[in-house]
Design a protein that fits this description.
It contains 12 helices and 17 strands. By secondary structure, it is α/β, with parallel strands linked by helices. It has a domain at about 1-120 and about 180-250 and about 345-395: 3-Layer(bba) Sandwich (FAD/NAD(P)-binding domain), CATH 3.50.50. Strands 3, 4, 5, 6, 11, 12, 13, 14 and 15 form a 9-stranded mixed sheet that branches. The relative contact order is 0.19.
Amino acid sequence: MEYSDNYYVRTKSYSINSNKLNESLQCDVCIIGGGLSGISTAYYLNKINPNLKIIILEKNKIGWGASGRNGGQLLHDYSGNFSSQKHSNNEQKQLWNFTIDAVREVKKNIKDLNIKCDLVEGYLLTAVTKSHDEELKKYVDLLNNKYDYSSASYLSKEEMERYFESPYYKSAMFDKECGQIHPLNYCLGLAQEILKNKNCKIFEDSSVESYTSENKVKILLDSGCNVTADKMILCCNAYIGNLNKKLRRKIMPVKTYVSAFKDIPKDEINKFFKRQITIGDMLFVLNYFRLDKNNNLIFGGGVSYSNVDPMNLENSLKKSIKKILPGLEKYKAWCTWSGHVAITVNRLPHIGAIDKNILFAQGYSGHGLAITTMVGRMIAEVLLSRNNDFELFKKVEHRNFPGFGVLDTPLLVLAMSYFKLKDLLSFK
């Protein structure tokens, strides 16, 4: 299956030569899923031990899913809160450090491999309401004092307007380390690096139907071919389907939407943006947007738990644009697209082992662009007995989504209504 049309596909700088798997093979490690989790894991496995025979099986194209069509925001932290989990204060700090290390690791990879993915530093987390403003002050204090993170600072509305001006927002946190990248180019750039080693092979258009795990893992593809591996890593995220029903019950694929605007006049852009910067707000159903290197606006937001897109995606997003960037809603989008985000009940990533031969990573809940790189490194190191960081994530308690099956969609639509109501009540 070819890439769905979106801004990143139209502007990608890389491509890889990969075919469908048409023969049965053996390897040391087989990775299911060619998104950032799978590609990152392969990259670090190869970096640690270039002699490993690694196979990546991707149902569609490398970066086809959320890895190649997200908002492009390179962020620290998680969507959920670890304070509700059974972690000590020191472990919570370790988990926080994991996310900022992830941001730094992505930037290191970009520099070391000279990946052309339009890295820009600078991120604003914006408060929409007075309660958001109070939360923001507490959050900055937490980062500065509990986690010893000095790159984040609180900005009043007047201070925020040095970077970005909007009647919709009351204040912001500015983080000088976070920012934005072209996610598909980053993913493809890593993939190209992997393929420099002949021991590493990527097969696109290669759909896995099932697997068995005994002394080794045997992976059966829909073509009738199979791969026999010592170890397997499931990096399917929102696209796990029926490959592993227990993992599928821990996540829910939800849709979010993005538009790219190519030809907004510079003077119109400059009314709001004082520099190229990345912005996200504190609503439950949040808005996120940024300027790319050419001053094109990329605006995302909204979610659908029912897996049904609005009748007009572009107009749906423009309702938010009118509030936040009044006047820019009159411009026609260059392209508009949707994509699946895999969320967990607690909005924390779900990472671990099924048995001695199979590891998995999923459920980044909208914060996967940076974290996937560090997760890939961690999985590689755990697999090769270089660390035990897994233990921190294994302590996270992940519940199944309620009503899985017949009641799945209705319950999640109700959940969506609940979050929208919370957003409305926060304005009072």
